[in-house]
Design brief:
Structural class: mainly alpha
Number of helices: 9
Low-confidence stretches: 110-114
Oligomer: single chain
Distance between the termini: 15 Å
Strand content: under 5%
Shape: globular
Length: 218
């Protein structure tokens, strides 16, 4: 049976990676001039697509690793390094800058193609299901059984539900937090992600037999 601590870690990691609060102002920018009904439809399509992509990577990620001969400890270390770099981006605001660039690209596409729908790109991929989320899903299910897969996917759906709520509250949330508030939230989440990334690296080193067991390593 999967442990509660594992589910809490999964939720925290995915929540920090997806960053629903940071997505809120970008969602507003990409749906500027649309009605509330149109925004809800775009958010729904983006989340359904994200749920499908997460399920795909969750089910096939471990098989791909075995096929190309990568061990779970090696992937944990590599994934931890990737997540740590993502955390640095969040701490130094580089992540939000890239997201704004993606949002601007989508806005340009909307102007060029009036029927363009941003729900798939860039909302679902790569803003919601980006490299960090894909890496996290593979790491969390690398040694899981069928129950573990179902539990982790359930956690992913809960995170997507928070994205749905944030999209509904995007306008008031952006006004309340402001640019300073969003920066503070992003940095706090970045610190949490950095700590989780280091734990992934420690677990990978421990699993590979390198050195003595670390406190908190599985």
């Amino acid at each position: 049976m999967i442990e509660l601590a594992t589910l809490v870690t999964a939720f925290t990691t995915l929540f920090v990676i997806v960053d629903p609060i940071g997505l809120a102002p970008l969602f507003v920018a990409m749906t500027a001039g649309m009605s509330d009904s149109q925004r809800r439809k775009i958010a729904a399509r983006a989340l359904l697509t994200s749920a499908g992509l997460m399920l795909l990577f969750l089910l096939l990620g471990d098989a791909v690793l075995r096929f190309i001969g990568i061990s779970v400890p090696a992937f944990r270390i590599a994934g931890g390094v990737l997540l740590f770099l993502t955390a640095l981006d969040m701490l130094f605001e580089r992540r939000q800058a890239r997201r704004r660039d993606n949002a601007e690209e989508a806005s340009d596409a909307v102007e060029a193609e009036p029927d363009h729908d941003p729900s798939i790109f860039p909302l679902a991929l790569p803003l919601i299901v980006g490299p960090g989320a894909i890496t996290t899903l593979i790491l969390l299910t690398a040694e899981a059984d069928a129950v573990g897969y179902a539990a982790i996917y359930g956690v992913a759906l809960v995170v997507l539900a928070t994205v749905w709520i944030a999209s509904l509250l995007a306008n008031p949330l952006a006004r309340v937090l402001g640019s300073v508030g969003l920066n503070v939230v992003t940095r706090v989440l970045g610190m949490l992600l950095a700590a989780l990334a280091v734990q992934f690296i420690i677990d990978g080193l421990h699993g590979s037999g390198f050195g003595l067991p670390f406190p908190g390593a599985e």
